[in-house]
User: Which sequence fits this backbone?
């Protein structure tokens, strides 16, 4: 079946907004001719439909034609209900047109106010409604040097002010919180993406020696694959090439707090991407689920641990008003410039709750590793409504690996921790 993509739906929404404006003027007129109202609606649907069809030829994340037709039919039913009673004919049409204009500025709702109400009432269970309000998609990889430090404030000056007003050893400790992290940003491409490219979801590309991992007889969910050749240098010892595939028990969402949670995560390594083959999750339809390619960017960030934040707060509370204000303002400026919870690789984590030192010490015990084991964050995955990911209450998954295992290319002792609000 043909598919209508988000870009196509976006074209429909903008077209509907244009003709919705005409509908408003007609509805507010003293004697609006009903045929012109119908013509406006038909023109909006046809124009947007053509735009959607043309853009649907591009191989991007899509929803089916049946879904799109169903939305259009829903709008038609609402319209027929309105025109059945002449007394209420004009104001609802005007409201629909105005709603179409308003929602087209933010999201895809086709001007149907009830959709937002339904979505608010049943946010978690009615996952299909998420298709009506997708997050903005980036077309093409992000710029090579993005983001938080491009803010209009002088963050270097804030860093200098913060450190200059801290005594030792707190100054040296906080100076270590300034790090460069690697963001893994999903993007949309108008060209086909190589099968071995780093991505979220989709088909798993596995070495012929690997089978799809299971837990208690049920197949795990494939979340992501990382192509090590695409990840920029981060200072970690690691294999120079190969694919890392991440599987997780998304149905039960183990938190990483118990020994039995180990089986909820499987990470497979394919050293030769050229010999890997695509595999779909057993029991799924024959077509691959949506796939979101990733682009990697290195970004400077202020990444204090919770313990460092507490020590900094204690210093502010004990300092005189002038120094406390300077330190507090500098800390706030730096924190606000940080990226939010997001996808990261081989970087400091964006914490949702507390530091994970105790969790990782427990994990070392569960795995039979020394308590002194040093861990590296291999991958952080944020919740993603577009992919149906909601870790706890909109939290994050953190895949940790012992430093020595990463250097040796061993991925059988990765430990996953889930944090949420």
Assistant:
């Amino acid at each position: 079946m043909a598919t209508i993509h988000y870009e196509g739906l976006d074209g429909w929404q903008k077209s509907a907004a244009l003709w919705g404006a005409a509908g408003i003027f007609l509805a507010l007129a003293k004697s609006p001719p009903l045929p012109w109202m119908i013509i406006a609606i038909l023109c909006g649907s046809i124009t947007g439909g053509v735009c959607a069809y043309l853009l649907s030829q591009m191989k991007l994340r899509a929803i089916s034609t049946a879904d799109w037709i169903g939305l259009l039919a829903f709008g038609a039913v609402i319209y027929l209900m309105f025109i059945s009673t002449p007394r209420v004919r004009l104001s609802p049409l005007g409201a629909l047109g105005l709603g179409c204009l308003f929602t087209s500025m933010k999201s895809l709702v086709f001007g149907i106010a009830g959709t937002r109400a339904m979505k608010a009432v049943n946010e978690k269970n009615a996952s299909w409604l998420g298709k009506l309000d997708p997050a903005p998609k980036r077309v093409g990889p992000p710029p090579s040097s993005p983001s938080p430090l491009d803010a209009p404030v002088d963050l270097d000056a804030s860093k200098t002010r913060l450190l200059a007003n801290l005594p030792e050893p707190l100054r040296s400790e906080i100076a270590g919180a300034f790090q460069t992290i690697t963001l893994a940003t999903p993007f949309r491409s108008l060209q086909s993406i190589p099968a071995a490219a780093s991505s979220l979801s989709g088909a798993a590309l596995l070495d012929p020696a690997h089978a799809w991992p299971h837990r208690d007889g049920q197949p795990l969910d494939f979340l992501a694959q990382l192509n090590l050749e695409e990840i920029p240098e981060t200072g970690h010892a690691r294999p120079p090439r190969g694919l890392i595939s991440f599987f997780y028990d998304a149905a039960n969402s183990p938190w990483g707090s118990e020994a039995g949670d180990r089986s909820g995560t499987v990470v497979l390594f394919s050293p030769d991407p050229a010999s890997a083959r695509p595999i779909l999750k057993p029991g799924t339809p024959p077509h691959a689920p949506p796939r979101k390619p990733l682009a990697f960017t290195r970004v400077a960030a202020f990444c204090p641990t919770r313990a460092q934040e507490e020590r900094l707060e204690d210093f502010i509370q004990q300092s005189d008003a002038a120094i406390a204000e300077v330190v507090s303002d500098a800390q706030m400026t730096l924190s606000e410039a940080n990226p939010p919870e997001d996808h990261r690789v081989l970087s400091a984590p964006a914490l949702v709750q507390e530091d994970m030192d105790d969790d990782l010490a427990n994990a070392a015990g569960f795995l039979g590793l020394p308590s002194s084991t040093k861990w590296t964050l291999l991958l952080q995955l944020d919740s993603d409504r577009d992919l149906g990911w909601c870790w706890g209450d909109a939290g994050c998954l953190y895949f940790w690996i012992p430093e020595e295992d990463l250097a040796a290319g061993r991925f059988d002792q990765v430990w996953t921790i889930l944090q949420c609000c």
Q: What stands out?
A: The longest helix spans residues 6-28. Residues 228 and 241 are 5 Å apart (CA to CA). Residues 1-12, 55-63, 98-139, 145-152 have pLDDT under 50 and may be disordered. The chain has two domains: 3-132, 148-419.
